[in-house]
């Protein structure tokens, strides 16, 4: 089938059947009918379409209750491929995945902050080219999903502004579509991370879900009933710029006391240097983790305090959105073992009601560093499923 025709054929029932198979495979036609309430003949005709489109395949695995074994349905892994890109400020990474998020190949090129727009695009294309060349049947490529740090205009696929790399108005979608002739979708890295976690991190049964990315910056992605939430002007989830201290440090955005100025890797190092007299000049966030691991009380205290600060941000988020589940990820969460106890404690001390304190699920990302890049790939998958 031709690329780009999925949207036309998509119907609510079809999407229901496809997602049922994705989440509960292997399944028989009869089970799908039973569990979705769609009539058996309709299920059969939808399944036929899905098989024709290379999205689903049959397998004889079913348990028989006497008589012949039912034919079971599975997502066809090798039916299509997606290219996912994680464009960070220190590296551009690329992967090819199948329809269930298995990483089939990967590549990476290191970059430094504050490169030119041209150099950035050139490097990005080189990463995509490497992944593209590794895929035998180019017709199976559904498209390229790009997770870009900073503010992204999703509809035009332009990276508007990134404070970490100093890039402005980079036409990522246009440039990649021109060269590779497949569909390109661009998303902010924190939203991509949220989508990646939602799709591949076993959180599917959850209605409202937030992933918070804490690394060089802080951003959140909100997934509401399976879809990313953007807000009216597309800045929903800019949690890093939520002000938590009116007189705090100046943030990269120009405001004072943003959440980001307390909890990014760099901010943690700054606080450590202020509080610990003999802290080395070249102290890094990784060093702080190492010293904490060695049971150094001063550094343990810094991470405990960081957990409390993150907890305050999380409580604000809970009071605003009241999600079922919050997943924390990004580089700073490499120190999760020292952060999570005070994050949880702060939520218990500050969240408004007992139900919220008891029922809000807080977890550390299970996908870790792959969440963002898998989320980039899921941008395309979310269009089909
Ligand atoms: Zn700010």
CATH architecture tag of the largest domain: 2-Layer Sandwich
Radius of gyration, in Å, reads: 23 Å
Number of separate domains: 3
Q: What is the CATH superfamily label of the largest domain?
A: ATPase, nucleotide binding domain
Q: What's the overall geometry? A: globular
Strand order of the largest sheet: 6-5-4-7-11
Q: How many angstroms separate the termini?
A: 16 Å
Structure annotation, total helices? 14
Name of the CATH class of the largest domain: Alpha Beta
Helix fraction by DSSP (H/I, runs of at least 4):
40-55%
- Annotation, overall tally of beta strands: 16
Quick recap:
The protein is of the alpha/beta class and 385 residues long. The chain has 14 helices and 16 strands. The chain has three domains: 6-75, Arc Repressor Mutant, subunit A; 79-195 and 372-384, ATPase, nucleotide binding domain (Nucleotidyltransferase, domain 5), CATH 3.30.420.40; 206-365, ATPase, nucleotide binding domain (Nucleotidyltransferase, domain 5).
């Amino acid at each position: 089938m031709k690329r780009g025709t999925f949207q036309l054929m998509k119907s609510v029932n079809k999407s229901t059947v496809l997602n049922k198979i994705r989440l509960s495979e292997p399944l028989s036609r009869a089970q799908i009918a039973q569990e979705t309430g769609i009539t058996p003949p309709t299920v059969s005709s939808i399944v036929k379409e899905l098989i024709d489109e290379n999205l689903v395949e049959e397998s004889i695995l079913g348990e028989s209750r006497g008589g012949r074994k039912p034919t079971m349905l599975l997502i066809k892994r090798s039916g299509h491929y997606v290219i996912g890109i994680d464009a960070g400020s220190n590296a551009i990474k690329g992967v090819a995945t199948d329809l269930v998020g298995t990483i089939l190949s990967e590549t990476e090129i290191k970059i430094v902050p504050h490169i030119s727009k041209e150099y950035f695009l050139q490097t990005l294309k080189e990463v995509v080219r490497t992944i593209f060349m590794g895929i035998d049947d180019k017709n199976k490529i559904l498209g390229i999903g790009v997770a870009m740090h900073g503010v992204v205009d999703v509809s035009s696929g332009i990276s508007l502004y990134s404070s970490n790399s100093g890039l402005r108005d980079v036409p990522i979608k246009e440039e990649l579509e021109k060269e590779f002739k497949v569909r390109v979708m661009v998303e902010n890295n924190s939203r991509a991370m949220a989508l990646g976690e939602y799709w591949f991190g076993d959180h599917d049964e959850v209605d409202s879900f937030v992933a918070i990315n804490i690394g060089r910056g802080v951003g959140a992605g909100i997934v509401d009933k399976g879809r990313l939430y953007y807000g009216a002007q597309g800045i929903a989830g800019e949690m890093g710029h939520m002000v938590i201290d009116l007189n705090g440090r100046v943030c990269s955005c120009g405001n004072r006391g943003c959440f980001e100025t307390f909890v990014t890797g760099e901010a943690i190092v700054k606080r450590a240097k202020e509080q610990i007299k003999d802290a080395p000049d070249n102290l890094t966030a990784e060093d702080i983790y190492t010293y904490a691991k060695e049971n150094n009380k001063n550094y343990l205290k810094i991470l405990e305090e960081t957990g409390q600060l993150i907890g305050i941000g999380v409580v604000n988020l809970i009071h605003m959105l009241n999600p079922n589940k919050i997943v924390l990820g990004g580089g700073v969460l490499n120190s999760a073992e020292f952060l999570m106890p005070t994050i949880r404690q702060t939520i218990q001390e500050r969240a408004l009601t007992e139900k919220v304190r008891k029922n809000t699920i807080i977890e550390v990302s299970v996908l870790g560093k792959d969440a963002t890049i898998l989320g980039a790939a899921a941008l395309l998958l979310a269009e089909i499923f």
